[in-house]
């Protein structure tokens, strides 16, 4: 059921490191939110435009990222419907590679993204931000705008290093600066048959500063196939392990974001 | 846009859509008479809602997906170029004509098209689900009667007379149903105290519709098509007199009709009977149809449009006056039955208030009449008539 009072939640899939499953998570979770009846928007902030590609939308925003940031009420004009009910997309644009510079023009750059999103809150129950892999002014603006950071982590040494960097940021108060912002990590591309993955997972779950969700997204061909099928996994392989994992992940994320609803449901 | 849809065809709509679109476009049938259209990226950009309606017409409504309005507009152009017809053509009666062709030939072509429109709408009228069919049929019928009457000198008199009779008979079968439909549309659906009145009107409408349907299924109606066609054929063979060119006859009729209306309107004062307003309105309809069916094709289009606009202002006032009169008369006839029905006292009071409202509207229309009529009878309007007819 859609929220009648539009208690909108902004969820950013974020990691300093690339290729960890941010886009796959954003696309699949946004699809699942919409399929559950929620009005959902996915903003592809990554100039590589992978989410935009997966939804077959042209990666073009008239006026580019600068125009989008300058006119606070203009984001709605660039939104495109996807092929899925209730799921819409604010596409990527190649100019997003200069989004840092564009943000820097403003007095409070970190607050800008939140201001751009403000008018959209009336229309959506969930807004997903698919972020580029970096630590930059864009990341800071994302941290400020999001109600939850969803951090995919590959349980391997280099990837866990990125996770630890994030932990340092959190410790320094740079992540989740606003009250109530949740930082939720989950394991992505996990292979439980590999002892190294199991060891890393165990070690990272022990870090108190950040929350690691119980669900892990397995390494799966279906996730790779999204690029061919240009659809969320749940659409073309609903029974696959990856699909089941994304569904479980979404249930857990939603439970974390709406504990009140869960309690009422229970 | 018509409530039936934006585009229509009597052919296989899905096949026509397929052939009208570029090969790079994808088309998939979804359930419930829907077609999904995908662009060259295989992105869903537009949905077509498909409706098969009585009489064999299929209607298409294009629903753009958010952010794809332009794509949808492009698709609409392709579909129109591919033979799907825009909704306005469903009742489009204008036919091309040359100024110097014999009036009987041009009139016959217009009549043929008007009969076609009536025939296309008849199956929908018989099913009775959408008031639009009945409305379109009645307009085409009135237009046809106007053409017969105004172009009579160019037609075979006996055949034209019978043609007129048959058309009038068809119209008469539909009047009660249409009046009741319009009255029901004007009632405030949310007003609870009007519920008994609404119920009564719905019952009457049901009866009127049943009577109309029976008559429209009668042998006279089933033969009507052939009768009209053969009469038209004979009528178009020309009268005994020399047939004038259509432009000459149409100009004469337009000028005369305008003069007649100016004369009738000038005689109307604040205390004039409602019938005089109604008669003027009927004259106005005839002038409008002459202008639309012949004026636009033959004369200065700009002047014709301006005269139609001026006439329309007057007709709106007269239409409001007449609708109020018809609705008030219907309500008065219902009063005894309404009083006897459950919740009748309250409904009667509500109907009384409704009646008072209609009378006030009618009085207001009378007050607006002089201003609207002055515009129509003004030197400027006469100048337009001169530009059209001279």
Keywords, please?
heterodimer; A: 266 residues; alpha/beta; Rossmann fold; 42% helix; 17% strand; B: 390 residues; alpha+beta; TATA-Binding Protein; CHAD domain; six-stranded antiparallel sheet; 6 strands; 68% helix; 8% strand
Report on this structure.
The complex is a heterodimer of chains A (266) and B (390). Chain A is α/β, with parallel strands linked by helices and 266 residues long. Chain A has one domain (9-258): P-loop containing nucleotide triphosphate hydrolases (Rossmann fold, 3-Layer(aba) Sandwich), CATH 3.40.50. Chain A contains twelve helices and eight strands. Chain A has helices spanning 22-35, 50-54, 64-70, 99-104, 109-117, 137-145, 157-171, 195-205, 221-229, 233-236, 241-257, 259-265, and strands spanning 9-13, 40-44, 80-81, 87-90, 126-130, 148-153, 182-190, 211-218. In chain A, strands 3-4-2-5-1-6-7-8 form an eight-stranded mixed β-sheet, with helices on both faces. In chain A, helix 7 (157-171) links the parallel strand 6 and strand 7. In chain A, helix 1 packs across helix 11 and helix 5 crosses helix 6 (137-145). With 390 residues, chain B is of the alpha+beta class. Helices cover 68% and strands 8% of the residues of chain B. A six-stranded antiparallel β-sheet of chain B has the order 2-3-4-5-1-6, with helices on one face. In chain B, helix 9 (274-298) packs antiparallel against helix 10, helix 10 (301-340) runs antiparallel to helix 11 and helix 10 packs across helix 12 (379-389). The mean pLDDT of chain B is 90. The A-B interface holds A 55-58, 78-81, 83, 88, 230 and B 41-44, 65-68.
